[in-house]
């Protein structure tokens, strides 16, 4: 199949490109290099020594059969004609859209970054949808959402839509008075209500609604993958070639929690648990993320269909993650410490959490059941790069509610 | 109170300013004049002969006591510092945000207009929220949403949130198989799921989620008024002064349905009913809209609260509206014809529709029970301007799904 990867130079885009090429697909891509640039701005760099794009491009062309197209544009900021022309040239069967600003703390820093996040993500996807409508309406859009769209409601979270069949007819009642007011249970597909927790997470919700509308109005097809945070740095497609390794961010803004914990373990810094550490999410190893995107690409929905996959195997609290890193560290003879910091975010620190996740498994996804071995492997993979760690960047200082400052350790 | 009206030169902004000044409030405002400009671009004009802004400003200063501030900016497009500086100068108690692109067809014309709509509305509100956070966090944001955020689900629509108390514990079941899977009814405030039907309607949903987050993260307070389409052209605050009249759009893009029907009746053109005409919504006269915004301003929510008002009295199908205009026309000795046109939109033409609307009534709103007299009055108010009608602009040609072209009359 012809697959266009938007954000091909990124953490997920690069290993996905390698995997799809190994699977015999024809890959093309765009990237604005915003991630490289923004991490440099933080006075940081990928912990892994990633290659420059021009060299990566050469490596790709040695393994793939078909020609490779590349365009350095920023969706949503560039004119809509850029993405239209790119898709016109490439005529992809599938488009994997990873070209979004992916950091919640980055989006919370100031009005400029909040605004850039919402423009790049929401308007970027809007431009993409129009371009698909105009030049490749049969292509399949694979879009990364996030489990964070749902927040932490005190009920089971379905995969995207509220289930259509209900037990009774009257299920919602007003709490204004004690008289049942007869809220009918919806019988047709309404989205499960979203409750996102940052300007970044909001963009994923806005995208969701924009894409649903495009599928309905224009008969486009899309898979929206609600991923838990991904961790890890190597996949089988890289073999032993260090030059093929993907980027690895561990700073407060672009490093997700397991990545950050592993780097803290390596540097001998206490793991930064935010608040009580009861925040519970589903996490997944890099190879599972790539596996699922490939499954989605190879099993497209029908025209007009918008489908949601929740992607994770089991859920862990932050305290459990810290314990896993502690134990993985012990296996590698590290003495890992854990500290509770003031939570810089506004989020529930203990909560009910029960999302569903069956659709990918029905397509053949074999999830990693226990993440502990993958965390141990990650620690081992990162050991050669310990000297590259910039320690001052791992303490949170972007706050949700007030002036930004480094969080204090809780007594 | 000090009230800042964003979009003060518009259809609702202008009569609201007149009303608030008459009520003794101190009014300030901004406007980009985008509405005047965009209607000119359609080769159209307000049916009513509205005054230029500089003259309107002089009229305002003769009736109010306090100084009047005005700034011509486009939210979302201008730098965020414009709105921050404005709010810093004004220090409002309430901010009424009407400065959004309000037309669904206009947003569906092409990618540029879809993009401008989402940037002006979503990023505009985002800039406003940041400015409030930074310079007037206690101010009350009154924002116009639309009943169109909800779409037409086959269940009762509550006012914003899913009611908190449920009959039983397990209310949603999966339709994947016949085994109840125990979807718990949410016990805490989740938003009722939205299902908007145009790029414009989507912006109102995006705003909703952005504002909810700002209330939660920053303790801002906001009232989101889900209005049905408003009609009418005069309010008591204008007295007999034609120079105080508000604008009146009747073209396919900026004219809402009752306004358009009245102009068609006056021009002797058959009323353009889209499709079967079973589309059902709540409509309200201009004076009710102004009344409700004033009620909201004078009864602010508490800090951190986001509240939703659904605003309409009863609902009408398009066929019923056409009948009302027919009868109002008969009273004025007009021979009104009704025609069914191909529906240019993607929408249900017959559907269940039962939204709740109690919160404004609890605050003292006395709604117009029957809109027929108000429609008759509107027809009479417009009669002096019949010669200004540009007839070619009232047939729909913006289509939701394909190349734009004039809709055909259905046999």
Give a written overview of the molecule.
2 copies of one chain form a homodimer. The first copy, chain A, has 411 residues and is of the alpha/beta class. Chain A has 2 domains: 2-157 and 192-393, 3-Layer(aba) Sandwich (Rossmann fold); 162-191, no CATH class. In chain A, 35% of the residues lie in helices and 14% in strands. In chain A, the strands form 5 sheets. A 7-stranded parallel sheet of chain A has the order 3-2-1-4-5-8-13, with helices on both faces. In chain A, helix 1 (13-22) links the parallel strand 1 and strand 2 (26-30). Chain A is globular, with a radius of gyration of 21 Å. Chain A starts with a strand and ends in a 29-residue tail after the last helix. Residues 165-184 of chain A have low confidence and may be disordered. At the A-B interface, helix 6, strand 6, strand 7 and helix 7 of A face helix 6, strand 6, strand 7 and helix 7 of B.
Describe how the helices and strands are arranged:
Two copies of one chain form a homodimer.
Chain A: E1 2-6, H1 13-22, E2 26-30, H2 34-41, H3 53-63, E3 70-71, H4 80-90, E4 94-97, H5 104-108, H6 111-135, E5 140-146, E6 170-172, E7 183-184, H7 199-218, E8 221-227, E9 230-231, H8 257-267, E10 271-274, E11 280-282, E12 284-285, H9 286-298, E13 306-311, E14 315-317, H10 318-331, E15 338-341, H11 359-362, H12 372-382
Parallel strand pairs in A: 1-2, 1-4, 2-3, 4-5, 5-8, 8-13, 9-12, 10-15
Antiparallel strand pairs in A: 6-7, 11-14
